[in-house]
Amino acid sequence: MNVKFSFDEAMVKRRGFMLEDVHQTIKGLFTAHDFPCVFEGDVLSCTGKDHGDDFSIMWDIILSLLRSDWFMECAASCVWQDEDGEEDILSQVGKA
Questions:
Q1: According to the 3-state scheme, what is the secondary structure of the chain?
Q2: Of 26, 27, 61, 79, which has the highest C-beta tally within 10 A?
Q3: Angle at 39 between CA 36 and CA 42, to 5 degrees
Q4: What pTM does this model have?
């Protein structure tokens, strides 16, 4: 299971942030729990470790981000992928 993030660079700048700082913030949330995160072009991908609590920890992080104004304004995509397929998280919370 993994979650992939991309960001609207223009919006990030309008909010007074640097894209690198946004990436480091997201990466830090996941790596604090030893989830590996890699960049695939402009997309940050964070992957579970196949432990029993990965799902709940990853979703706890995702839900905290979804409650953050800065994340909702700056995120261009947030896609959950697992053995059941792919889920566009932002579209489910009212942002396309």
A1: CEEEEEECHHHHHHCCCCHHHHHHHHHHHHHCCCCCEEEECCEEEEECCCCCCHHHHHHHHHHHHHCCHHHHHHEEEEEEEECCEEEEHHHHCCCC
A2: 26
A3: 145
A4: 0.91
